[in-house]
Design brief:
This is DUF4442 domain-containing protein. With about 150 residues, the chain is an alpha+beta fold. The chain has four helices and six strands; from the N terminus they run ααββαββαββ.
């Protein structure tokens, strides 16, 4: 399957081995939003029996990467997406399956226009991590950039 035929989630899973290590599941992947699930796996639990903070960070960062690929995958020939900063807040105890929902925080066309003008645009992606009962267990913001090649 070529990159043109792959969904953004499939592109992330193919290029980032950690996604496969944690068995992350892509439920939705569009240019505006991505939803990724971390199954309940004892091998990735913490000391209180929920998903380890590192696994939840990876889940949220992966969801942010999927929305970035959905929005800017067509720009890979001239720029590489890179995470610049990430900040996470753990709000409630996570248990069982957790899901990360990422949303693009800046209009795609605005980011591409900045790239077209010779800039290195930065843009935020907001992620909410929820338990199966809908409670928000964490919130994360990842600031991404599109670094032009060369």
């Amino acid at each position: 399957m070529s990159a043109d035929q792959m969904s953004a989630g499939e592109m992330v899973a193919a290029s980032v081995p950690m996604v496969r290590t944690l068995n992350l599941e892509f439920l939705e992947s569009t240019p505006e939003r991505a939803v990724v699930r971390l199954p309940d796996q004892p091998a990735y639990h913490n000391h209180v029996g929920g998903p380890h903070a590192g696994a939840m960070f990876t889940l949220a960062e992966t969801a942010s990467g999927a929305v970035v690929m959905g929005a800017f995958g067509d720009q890979l020939g001239r720029a590489v997406p890179l995470a610049v900063t990430a900040e996470i807040a753990y709000k409630k105890l996570a248990k069982g399956v957790v899901t990360a929902t990422a949303t693009l925080g800046r209009p795609r066309d605005e980011v591409v226009a900045e790239l077209d003008a010779g800039g290195r645009p930065e843009f935020p992606v907001s992620i909410s991590i929820t338990r199966e009962d809908g409670a928000v267990t964490g919130e994360m913001t990842v600031v991404w950039t599109l670094r032009p090649h060369g």
